[in-house]
Amino acid sequence: xxxxxxxxxxxxxxxxxxxxxxxxxxxxxxxxxxxxxxxxxxxxxxxxxxxxxxxxxxxxxxxxxxxxxxxxxxxxxxxxxxxxxxxxxxxxxxxxxxxxxxxxxxxxxxxxxxxxxxxxxxxxxxxxxxxxxxxxxxxxxxxxxxxxxxxxxxxxxxxxxxxxxxxxxxxxxxxxxxxxxxxxxxxxxxxxxxxxxxxxxxxxxxxxxxxxxxxxxxxxxxxxxxxxxxxxxxxxxxxxxxxxxxxxxxxxxxxxxxxxxxxxxxxxxxxxxxxxxxxxxxxxxxxxxxxxxxxxxxxxxxxxxxxxxxxxxxxxxxxxxxxxxxxxxxxxxxxxxxxxxxxxxxxxxxxxxxxx
Length: 356
Fold this sequence. Notes:
- There is one protein chain.
- The protein has helices at about 5-10, 30-35, 40, 55-65, 110-160, 160-185, 200-215, 235-250, 315-325, and strands at about 15-20, 25, 70-80, 85-95, 100-110, 195, 220-225, 230-235, 260-275, 275-290, 330-335, 340-345.
- By secondary structure, the protein is an alpha+beta fold.
- It folds into three domains: about 5-110, Beta-Lactamase (2-Layer Sandwich), CATH 3.30.450; about 115-185; about 195-350, 2-Layer Sandwich (Heat Shock Protein 90), CATH 3.30.565.10.
- The strands form three sheets. Strands 2-1-5-4-3 form a five-stranded antiparallel β-sheet.
- Strand 9 and strand 10 form a beta hairpin.
- The model is unreliable at about 350-355 (pLDDT under 50).
């Protein structure tokens, strides 16, 4: 079967074709994204070379090859060469070509993607509902807060001595602090300034800021895909989103010189976000070696006012999520002691999108 990119690459399911020796003869773009590899690299390679520890993977292929019957395996764990583990449902269909040779057509669907699509839709809806409620509450707080501050200023003019004026200064200072907190709760409220940018401009800018904040003590590892194209985004707001994530990593570390952060960029094709399949998306991974996020708050880590630090406001990740969502992207987090992993995906077809 000759690979037809116009057909295979439009399918969101990963498809790989093997000959009777389990050698790769075709692969679509979704399979390349799923396995984090390329057709050029895999063509002519044995199936066992595609993943680390291919025991389950090869067993499914060999069973279908031996029986010449369709074979389905649910939840096979595949460890990619990057070290990432994914779980996939695999459907193996034996096919006989015109020469009588047996081939295998393998369909792969990542289970975590299906779960993520469902979870993202419910999370986005819940977050939008919460954000609307918080915006309404914040506006209601700001109105009387302005009155309190104004009354304190008027009172300060009537006080007979400077000692009493200190009390009004405290009222004004605390009112200003609460106003700033409310403004942060409201999050970014200006329209997106969409301009063609490369994601590495954002990552490098934040990298330099974090290095400066840590007095050059933090270790930042860069693992960039230099082939990533420019796409329409708001550079300033994306800088804020990435800065909030990386600053959390730095602040969570016992000491700055013990903090190691990895920045990774990749492209993924035929990627589903919500109900839409995007032809090409930008994926950014931010990993750190810190103590991890407490399991009790991990499911709500992007909700406002949720924080694992006694001195934290719990707004940084909420703002980061809001910025990514305004770019029509999604963000997620996995964490355990010694490894916290934030991942966000941004569609690269925003040229005609309207800023929300």
